[in-house]
């Protein structure tokens, strides 16, 4: 079984944690192919150490020339490494079927089950992106009204079919057409390239934080009954920490994944783990104190409080009270 990742040095720790999770549950050897966007030799050595308990598996680092993607738009969130998945079929022409995973995922089961899915004549097996905002992407990208927009962080790729149909030969013309409208860059492009040729699989293969936020009010779900949808998301086979939804990311999101702690169990198995400074309780307390201080600071700078009989305005700690009777005083 072949599993691909794409990473630069900044995401090397998360790459190591993800590989750790896959190896923990694997029932057979795995060939890991890391599309390398500049991972340091030190971090590579830590990742290779993960094979000590899985000697039959292999990890190879494949350098990628970033000049290939000079014309591709990037951002702090979506780096050039996000496009590496688009050249897997060229880099490994001998592989006909493979799993692609973003670095910010952990596996809670043997990926052999995912790999065994019959792709038929589809380009990929995917999970729908249930964020309600993704419906807008379909209109912007001129996707058919009845189509479903998928998340590109977990893919089972039919590389043979992708090569045969020369799918990615169309990517540069698409860039010219949609560049101003790309919010999710590689994911938007893949949704256009693969439209009508993907197999949607159960949501538990790519469970993101958005499905739990505020009891799911930010999600749309048209293809599963509520009971089944809830069951899939509460029993994830692959957890996806999109938007940095666990505490071990720099600039972690204010919205933590329901399964944010699962990252820790696999993190501990790597040499990236640095002891008590990375202990979950310590990080959680640090985050809460930071948020509390920020809230207090905002209230000190400016606070407006209105009631039926009183109005209070506080600026830079100074209270200005405007009574209902139009009396005015400074305290």
Q: Spell out the CATH superfamily of the largest domain.
A: Spore Coat Polysaccharide Biosynthesis Protein SpsA, Chain A
Radius of gyration: 23 Å
Low-confidence stretches: 325-331
Give me the number of helical elements.
11
**CATH fold-level topology of the largest domain:** Spore Coat Polysaccharide Biosynthesis Protein SpsA, Chain A
Integer count of domains: 2
CATH architecture of the largest domain: Alpha-Beta Complex
Strand arrangement, major sheet: 3-2-1-4-7-6-8
Query: What is the percent of helical residues?
Result: 25-40%
Give the rounded overall mean pLDDT: 88
What order do the helices and strands follow?
EHEHEHEEHEHEHHHEEHEHHEEEE
Describe the structure.
The chain has 331 residues and is of the alpha/beta class. The longest helix is centred in the last third of the chain and has 22 residues. Helix 1 runs parallel beside helix 2. The chain has eleven helices and 14 strands. The chain folds into two domains: 277 residues, Spore Coat Polysaccharide Biosynthesis Protein SpsA, Chain A, CATH 3.90.550.10; 39 residues, no CATH class. It is 29% helix and 21% strand.
SSE arrangement:
Elements: E1 2-7, H1 12-25, E2 31-36, H2 41-48, E3 58-63, H3 88-91, E4 97-101, E5 105-107, H4 112-115, E6 124-128, H5 134-140, E7 150-158, H6 159-164, H7 171-178, H8 186-193, E8 198-200, E9 207-208, H9 226-234, E10 238-240, H10 262-267, H11 280-301, E11 302-306, E12 310-315, E13 318-323, E14 328-330
Parallel strand pairs: 1-2, 1-4, 2-3, 6-8, 9-10
Antiparallel strand pairs: 4-7, 5-10, 6-7, 11-12, 12-13, 13-14
